[in-house]
TrEMBL record:
It comes from Flagellimonas aurea. Residues 159-257 form the HTH araC/xylS-type domain. Keywords: DNA-binding, Transcription, Transcription regulation. InterPro entries: Homeodomain-like_sf, HTH_AraC. The lineage of its organism: Bacteria, Pseudomonadati, Bacteroidota, Flavobacteriia, Flavobacteriales. It holds the Pfam family HTH_18. SMART domains: HTH_ARAC. This is Helix-turn-helix transcriptional regulator. Signal peptide: none annotated.
Length: 266
């Protein structure tokens, strides 16, 4: 698997979190790529439309028959399976920009978004016309330039909340956020859900678990029990339950088969 990622710089990082390019050769055919929902929506561009999207603990699946799509309103775990070789490029949003781009989505699952913006079709054509990955990222920045905007006051508040949660590695409570930002729990919850399209509690747990996963990936010798304590879990059932909500499987099972895709940030 060839995975290359890029973190946008100012001013693009105000609304876009990451870009990455993945190529799965024929020798890796039928291999499933685990995808963890990080509460950030994506513009996904497939070169081929031969993949299958798997989701939920009941092993639901749907063919990916759109070349430009996002994933919306489905239950983890997620996996993308390549029927043959598979090449795709993804532009990931900052969470506080989710609703700005995707609040009108009605369908769930793999949702075709090519109609949302004519620039998406043009970008798809250009990004797979070049073989140079650096050029793909330059094209992504051009796309971002066409989609920058001034944040509304509620977006700015939610951005500050998200950045605070990231800085705290998800080790924070809604009560602490209410005190920190001098807003009621109810107001924060309603405003956050409006902009991020995820609940505030869900986002906190997601950030905490994903930070824990990345720490464990870099420090494989640390025990899960010790790590869960470090991240504020003082009983294993609570930790395992939260982990399953985000990753779809139990911690031991996940780390026994650590996704190669996740290692792009190492």
């Amino acid at each position: 698997m060839n995975v290359v990622s890029y973190s946008p710089q100012e001013p693009f990082d105000s609304f876009f979190r990451e870009c990455y390019y993945i190529h799965l050769g024929k020798e890796k055919a039928n291999r499933r790529i685990p995808v963890i929902d990080d509460c950030c929506y994506d513009f996904v561009f497939f070169k081929e439309t031969k993949g299958v999207f798997h989701f939920g603990r009941d092993h639901n699946c749907t063919p990916i028959d759109s070349r430009i799509f996002t994933i919306h309103d489905v239950t983890p775990p997620y996996r993308i399976e390549a029927a043959d070789s598979l090449t795709f490029f993804t532009i990931k949003l900052q969470p506080w920009a989710n609703a700005y781009f995707f609040s009108t989505l009605q369908d769930s699952g793999v949702v075709d978004i090519s109609h949302l913006d004519a620039n998406l079709i043009s970008f798809h054509e250009q990004v797979f016309r070049t073989n140079e990955v650096t050029e793909k990222f330059s094209l992504a920045e051009e796309f971002m330039t066409q989609n920058t905007m001034e944040p509304t006051p509620s977006m700015a508040l939610v951005r500050d909340i998200c950045e605070y949660i990231y800085a705290k590695q998800g080790k924070v409570t809604v009560n602490e956020l209410s005190h920190q930002f001098e807003r009621s729990r109810q107001y924060l919850g309603k405003t956050f859900k409006k902009e991020v399209m995820y609940s505030l509690k869900r986002f906190i747990v997601t950030v905490r678990i994903l930070d824990l996963v990345k720490f464990k990936a870099k420090n494989p010798d640390i025990s899960l029990t010790e790590l869960s304590y470090d991240y504020g879990y003082f009983d294993q059932p609570h930790f395992i339950n939260d982990f399953k909500k985000i990753c779809g499987v139990a911690p031991q099972q996940f780390f026994n088969n650590l996704p190669e895709f996740l290692m792009r940030h190492q």
